[in-house]
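Narrative of accomplishments. A recurring question from our advisory board has been how the design workflow behaves on a single, concrete structure rather than in aggregate. To address it, we present the structure tokens for one chain from the evaluation set, followed by the sequence designed for it. No filtering or post-editing was applied between the two.
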């Protein structure tokens, strides 16, 4: 584990803006292979490359970003002009509460995110906050957790930020002047693509897909040409957690259907 950075007043380090005592690290762990590994025989060809073709018992390396907010002796003062106003607005008292602002690119199909956190030596009144932009999404007090124990946040709804660059804010607040909070394992959740089902009864073709398929549009085409797809403008019928549409195919030799987002 090697330190990427340690705080200094008003610095911008590796894309992260912060105030107070902040330390960032890259941690490495190993897990069993999941599925078939990609191997093209060159270093750096995958996030965890293999120098030789792997055996079924190989472990795959993972790298995870971890950072620590440390109240030991109080945070260091900082120049407000160096930090975004949104971060200052979320900090309870930015002159003595360490915080970090992390720029993140949200996957285009993400609907939720979560992270792991851990309190170390924090008094019962200390609490951590996590927000996006100017919104506070998660607050938790140290009193509810065992010291040094890693815990998971709730799954936070971030569908409105899908495909965008955001700034995640994390702060450690409270009346005490000691204690740390560690954060790692920031991850996003993307639902699987919805399944389109077709059923034929006589000359009627019924097409159905889940109600949970937000922002997906049914398109039809007489062939598989890329320019021949047209969205269906008629609203579907909704029942039993599914959208359904029925088509008369008595005069058609073939028809194709797809969902597009």
């Amino acid at each position: 584990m090697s330190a990427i950075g340690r705080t200094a007043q008003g610095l911008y380090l590796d894309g992260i803006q912060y105030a107070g005592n902040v330390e960032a690290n890259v941690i490495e762990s190993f897990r069993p292979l999941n599925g078939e590994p990609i191997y093209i025989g060159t270093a750096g060809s995958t996030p965890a490359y293999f120098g030789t073709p792997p055996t079924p018992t190989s472990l795959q390396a993972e790298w995870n970003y971890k950072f620590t907010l440390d109240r030991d002796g109080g945070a260091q003062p900082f120049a407000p002009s160096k930090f975004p106003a949104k971060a200052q607005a979320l900090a309870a008292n930015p002159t003595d509460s360490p915080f970090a602002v992390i720029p993140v690119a949200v996957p285009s199909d993400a609907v939720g995110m979560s992270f792991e956190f851990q309190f170390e030596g924090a008094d019962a009144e200390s609490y951590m906050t996590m927000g996006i932009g100017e919104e506070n999404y998660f607050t938790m007090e140290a009193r509810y957790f065992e010291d040094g124990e890693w815990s998971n946040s709730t799954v936070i709804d971030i569908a409105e930020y899908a495909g965008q660059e955001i700034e995640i804010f994390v702060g450690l607040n409270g009346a005490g002047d000691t204690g740390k909070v560690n954060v790692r394992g920031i991850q996003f959740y993307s639902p699987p693509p919805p399944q389109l089902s077709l059923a034929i009864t006589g000359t009627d073709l019924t097409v159905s897909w889940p109600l949970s398929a937000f922002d997906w549009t049914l398109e039809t085409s007489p062939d598989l040409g890329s320019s021949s797809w047209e969205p269906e403008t008629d609203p579907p019928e909704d029942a039993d957690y599914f959208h359904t549409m029925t088509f008369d195919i008595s005069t058609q030799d073939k028809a194709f259907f797809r969902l597009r987002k």
